[in-house]
Amino acid sequence: MMWLRRSDLGRRLRDGVPLILWMALIFWLSSRSTLVAIKNESVEKLAFNSAHAVAYAILAWLWWRAIRPRRQIDRAGLWGALGLTVLYGVSDEIHQLFVPGRSAQISDLLFDAGGAVAMLLLIRHVELLRTFPDRFLARPDVKSFPRRFRGGCSRFGEYLRGRQTLLGNRHNIDDTTDSRTKNL
């Protein structure tokens, strides 16, 4: 099975577990009869509608990460994430029909879809959303280091200790006549 290749299994788990946890949090919040009591009705509507948009924007981002583990931007991945997010929004509104004190509202679904669309547009145009958190978790690429440091940690440590070589201070590590760095 291509989905369960060993090389992709860690990435699938890293992308799938937050998605499942976020969907569980949305489900748990929607099963509460009252979340917060706000006295001003217009502030309450603004707070709840904003919360819907933000929650489903994050859900769309998590769906996109789960669908596209290689982080490619294509229409199929973006439309798939949008469809699955809206489908979960529909199921959430149906779920709220059975919760005392809650009701299903089309406006909530529109705010869910609006948040998802906004996030998917941001994914297309903001690189940080495509690379977060992978950029911060990745090991540095060996090829990004200068060639003279690829031989091992000892030479890099020497560089940090004042650019000394194994032979002491008399040779500079940048010396191209040094036989140890010439063949690297």
Descriptive report:
This protein is mainly α and 184 residues long. β1 (164-165) and β2 form a beta hairpin. It has 2 domains: 2-137, no CATH class; 144-182, no CATH class. α1 (6-30) packs antiparallel against α2 (41-67), α1 runs parallel beside α3 and α3 runs antiparallel to α4. The longest helix has 27 residues, at 41-67. It has helices spanning 6-30, 41-67, 75-97, 106-125, 127-131, 134-137, 153-160, 179-182, and strands spanning 164-165, 168-172. It has 8 helices and 2 strands, in the order αααααααββα. Strands 1-2 form a two-stranded antiparallel sheet. Helices cover 63% and strands 4% of the residues.
Please specify the SSE layout and strand pairing.
Elements lengths: L5 H25 L10 H27 L7 H23 L8 H20 L1 H5 L2 H4 L15 H8 L3 E2 L2 E5 L6 H4 L2
Antiparallel strand pairs: 1-2
Helix pairs in contact: 1-2, 1-3, 2-3, 2-4, 3-4
Quaternary status:
single chain
Biggest sheet, strands in spatial order? 1-2
What is the N-to-C succession of helices and strands? Answer: HHHHHHHEEH
| Apparent shape | elongated
Helix tally equals 8
The helix content is: 55-70%
Pairing-aware structural class of the strands and helices? mainly alpha
Largest sheet: 2 strands, antiparallel
Whole-number total of structural domains: 2
